[in-house]
Design a protein that fits this description.
By secondary structure, the chain is mostly helical. The chain has 14 helices and no strands. Helix 4 (79-95) crosses helix 14 (294-310). The chain is globular and about 60 Å long.
Length: 314
């Protein structure tokens, strides 16, 4: 009975997220005619699209390398295996209703196949948080320069400050999770918790790996920012780098709110609110640039689809 209620709540949540995403897109294209968006696309943007695809591949390679570096226990596993599972994760990230679904699928599948589930889940979780911290690091460095060039409402800075503090607290709890007592009634039913606590806390003794994965996270953030720069350049828009860093980071954080499917509809609305509302860039241009950002995501998902069709053991 309890499972039925849980399933109904989950289905209702997905329906609401779908409605928000569809409603968001419907509202945007009601305000911004599709033909005005499409007219900003032309063959001249091809070099920038190619650059985005190269960046997308580098992102996957660095993520695989970061995951490999954080796998401090168990047998030595080739880099190509981590890349393969990373590609699979991107496929499910675009298929499942949250932007984190692929992380869960790839870490659990990897852990099951190599008998190190807690290690795999811990490494992916730490890597995800490090990625967010790298983004906040870039945001707060760029913020003073951006504020000197544009009037950015304080609410955005507040949101980013709260989110960054939440990440710092969360990663601290992860690294010291073995110090957090778990009630026996829960520990006995969910034996995986103790294994996960041990796997997370072990990173306190692997400072080199944490440092190297932090550097990987910074490179990933720079590539993410380059992708944003590229899709604006593709529609012939020049944006100050500091403002691009700040607005892209804000868009990512707001899109992570679990109120739509993978941030679809919310992401586009946020971009228009920031780049049009604050900078005055025409909304059709902003939307045409933002939609180009789906090209590298689809490219990454296609690699995952090939992996799933090719590697039957996954």
């Amino acid at each position: 009975m309890a499972n039925d209620k849980t399933n109904k709540k989950r289905i209702l949540k997905r329906i609401i997220q779908l409605l928000v995403s569809v409603g968001g897109f419907a509202y945007i294209f009601h305000k911004i005619p599709l033909n005005e968006v499409i007219e900003n696309w032309n063959f001249g943007m091809t070099p920038w699209i190619i650059a985005m695809l190269v960046a997308a591949t580098l992102v996957m390679a660095i993520q695989a390398n970061r995951w490999k570096g954080l796998s401090v226990q168990g047998p030595e596993i080739p880099f190509k295996t981590y890349y393969t599972y990373t590609a699979m994760g991107y496929f499910f990230n675009n298929l499942l209703p949250t932007g984190f679904g692929g992380d869960a699928v790839k870490s659990l599948a990897f852990g099951k196949n190599f008998n190190q589930t807690s290690q795999s889940v811990s490494a992916v979780l730490i890597a995800r948080i490090q990625g967010l911290l790298a983004m906040f690091f870039c945001f707060f460095i760029a913020l003073p320069f951006a504020l000197s060039k544009a009037e950015i409402p304080w609410i955005y800075t507040l949101i980013m400050t709260v989110a960054s503090l939440a990440c710092i607290i969360f990663i601290s709890l992860c690294l010291f999770s073995d110090k957090i007592p778990v009630p026996a009634s829960i520990a006995n039913k969910l034996t995986f918790i103790a294994k996960l606590q041990k796997s997370l806390s072990i990173y306190r003794h692997h400072k080199k790996q944490i440092l190297l994965s932090s550097l990987d996270s910074l490179w990933l953030q720079l590539l993410t920012l380059f992708t944003a720069y590229a899709y604006f350049k593709a529609v012939n828009v020049d944006i100050d780098i500091s403002i691009l860093v700040v607005f892209t980071s804000i868009t990512i954080v707001i899109s992570m709110l679990p109120i739509s499917l993978n941030g679809i509809g919310i992401r586009e609305g946020t971009q228009v609110a920031l780049f049009t509302g604050i900078l005055g860039i025409p909304a059709p241009v902003v939307l045409s640039a933002g939609l180009l950002g789906y090209i590298p995501l689809l490219f990454q998902a296609m690699q995952g689809a090939i992996v799933l069709l090719t590697y039957k053991k996954l």
